[in-house]
Amino acid sequence: MHIPKGATVAVVDGQKLSLFQNSGDEASPKLTALPVGDINTDNKSGGQGHSSSSANPDDDTQDEDGFVAGVVDVLNKQAVAGKISKIVVVAAPRALGEMRKHYHVKLKDALVGEISKDLTGQTRSDIENAIAAA
């Protein structure tokens, strides 16, 4: 995948967010770490206010959904404020599906690509290689 120089890269799973900026060229990404602020985990999607049961996700799933929704809230705010103009989202498959439910139109407009793969905890080099190979 070719990503523009200066593009934001968000690497997400249900518990962790890493943000990077591509300081390399389009064909050879070079990721520079960006600070990650606090994530509001109160939004549990449809599960908020419901106890766990066979019909509702377990508490861990609700916590992951809340974290992912909080991540998208941060990204949405940055996109609306013009701080993100191009973004690549690399997320665990389940997290990516949950994220898509919360994308603001400005974030969708900034979206360069998505990679459905869990790369949290991987080295920066592994993430760069996965993006280049996608």
> What name does CATH use for the topology?
Nucleotidyltransferase, domain 5
Strand arrangement, largest sheet? 3-2-1-4-5
Output mean pLDDT: 87
| Bulk shape | globular
As a percent range, the share of strand residues is 15-25%
What is the annotated CATH architecture? 2-Layer Sandwich
**Sheet having the most strands:** 5 strands, mixed
Rg, rounded, reads: 15 Å
- Sequence stretches where pLDDT stays below 50 over 5 or more residues: 46-54
Instruction: Calculate the terminal CA-CA distance, rounded to whole Å.
Output: 5 Å
Structure description:
This protein has 134 residues and is α/β, with parallel strands linked by helices. The protein has four helices and five strands; from the N terminus they run βββαβααβα. The chain has a single domain (8-133), classed as Nucleotidyltransferase, domain 5 (2-Layer Sandwich). A hairpin with an 8-residue loop joins strand 2 and strand 3. The radius of gyration is 15 Å and the shape is globular.
Give a quick precis of the structure.
This protein is an alpha/beta fold. The protein has 4 helices and 5 strands. It has one domain: Nucleotidyltransferase, domain 5 (2-Layer Sandwich).
Q: Could you list some keywords that capture this structure?
A:
Nucleotidyltransferase, domain 5, alpha/beta, 5 strands, 19% strand, 134 residues, 5-stranded mixed beta sheet
